[in-house]
């Protein structure tokens, strides 16, 4: 059991006044619980998935990118045409698309979606994965390239006359005026836990992305980003995006029964010979985010109200993998703990991907939004966090360890 914090109805000074929700889009029914060998798109499933996100009240969906994945730009364009409100986030690696071309593609998507496009720049956390598409820059250079890429993107969207560029990584003459976004430059997100990631994100990103970490550790990281932003003379700080893999059920006890079942299946998937995830297991991860996740997992399985790290441990922290476990009320209260630390974008994606996305939309998002509306109306916090204690109550830890060796 974690020591229960003293509840104060005053809204913390660090709290974000708004919160928006992100979910990753899935192209077919294959999951970590039940992997189905496929590299393809199940169009019927994809349409249903995206429609469920729109109906569930999500604000954004991330279209991931990998060397063996579907093209994120094409999928984002499809999302834009299948929805009216959902904002597609294009995951883009600078080594795959020249920046003036990237600016053109993003502006085109923004026009087609009437201002809904967002881009998440991935500098690259694995040398091996980067090399699969011919990128051999060392990691610190990759972030320097991302910094230059951001500059070219923004100039391409805003310069009223042709301009030339002669930088460390890119050179061109008399480009533009570029194809314009719908109304304003496309928001740019980056993530990462290296020193280089913090520097670029603090100085230039509209959004900085984290994986789920213990509350105090994340707040320290947010302060670090904000300090870099202020030192760069920024008056608007980056929005903070944090990602979790919630496991919910009607009660905390039932959620823990599901969590233990899920983690056993996920571990089996990642341990299976021939699994697409096999290359991640058994090797020390190169990226700092995965290293941090594994360090937290080694220290403890449970943190704060509902953060569970065993899902990271069994996957070698191959991507965002820390869970929030509990009833919808407990998980919503845990999300609000992170909102209170400064997160205004919360990404939640499940292990039973479509069913979980639907359940979050029905049972979790409304609770968080109800609390945010209460705060706006009263200037005070509601009682959700005080009433649903999760790991701050002794029985929660008993559920978490029930039946475990």
TrEMBL record:
Organism superkingdom: Bacteria
Pfam families assigned to the protein according to its UniProt record, in alphabetical order: Bac_luciferase
Every Luciferase-like domain range: 38-344
Keywords: Flavoprotein, FMN, Monooxygenase, Oxidoreductase
Name listed for the protein in its UniProt record: Alkanesulfonate monooxygenase
UniProt xrefs under InterPro entries: Luciferase-like_dom, Luciferase-like_sf, SsuD_RutA_monooxygenase
Enzyme Commission no: 1.14.14.5
GO MF term set: alkanesulfonate monooxygenase activity
Top-tier EC class: oxidoreductase
Record's keyword annotation contains Oxidoreductase: yes
């Amino acid at each position: 059991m974690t020591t229960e914090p003293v509840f104060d109805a005053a809204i913390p000074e660090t709290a974000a006044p708004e919160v928006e929700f992100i979910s990753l889009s899935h192209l077919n029914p294959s999951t970590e619980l039940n992997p189905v060998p496929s590299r393809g798109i199940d169009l019927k499933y994809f349409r249903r998935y995206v429609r469920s996100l729109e109906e569930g009240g999500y604000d954004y969906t991330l279209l991931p990118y990998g060397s063996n994945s579907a093209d994120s730009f094409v999928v984002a364009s499809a999302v834009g045409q299948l929805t009216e409100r959902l904002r597609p986030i294009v995951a883009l690696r600078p080594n795959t698309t020249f920046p003036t071309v990237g600016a053109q593609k993003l502006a085109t998507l923004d026009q087609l979606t009437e201002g809904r496009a967002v881009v998440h720049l991935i500098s690259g956390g694995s040398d091996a994965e980067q090399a699969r598409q011919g990128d051999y820059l060392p990691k610190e250079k990759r972030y320097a390239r991302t910094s230059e890429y951001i500059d070219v993107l923004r100039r391409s969207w805003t310069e009223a006359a042709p301009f030339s560029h002669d930088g460390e990584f890119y050179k061109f003459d008399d480009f533009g005026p570029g194809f314009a976004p719908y109304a304003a430059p496309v928001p740019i997100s980056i993530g990462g836990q290296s020193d280089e990631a913090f520097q670029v994100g603090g100085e230039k990103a509209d959004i900085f992305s984290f994986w789920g970490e213990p509350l105090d550790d994340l707040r320290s990281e947010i302060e670090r980003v904000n300090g870099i932003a202020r030192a760069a003379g920024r008056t608007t700080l980056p929005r903070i995006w944090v990602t979790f893999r919630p496991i919910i059920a009607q009660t905390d006890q039932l959620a823990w029964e599901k969590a233990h079942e899920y983690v056993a299946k996920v571990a089996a998937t990642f341990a299976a010979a021939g699994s697409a995830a096999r290359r991640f297991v058994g090797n020390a991860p190169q990226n700092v985010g995965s290293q941090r996740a594994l360090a937290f997992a080694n220290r403890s399985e449970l943190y704060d109200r509902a953060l569970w790290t065993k899902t990271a441990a069994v996957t070698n922290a191959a991507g965002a993998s820390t869970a929030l476990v509990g009833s919808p009320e407990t998980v919503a209260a845990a999300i609000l703990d992170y909102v209170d630390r400064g997160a205004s974008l919360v990404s939640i994606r499940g292990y039973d991907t479509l069913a979980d996305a639907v359940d979050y939309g029905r049972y979790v998002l409304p609770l968080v939004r109800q609390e945010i509306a209460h705060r706006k109306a009263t200037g005070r916090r509601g009682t959700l966090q005080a009433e649903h204690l999760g790991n701050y109550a002794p029985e929660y830890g008993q559920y978490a360890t029930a039946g475990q060796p």
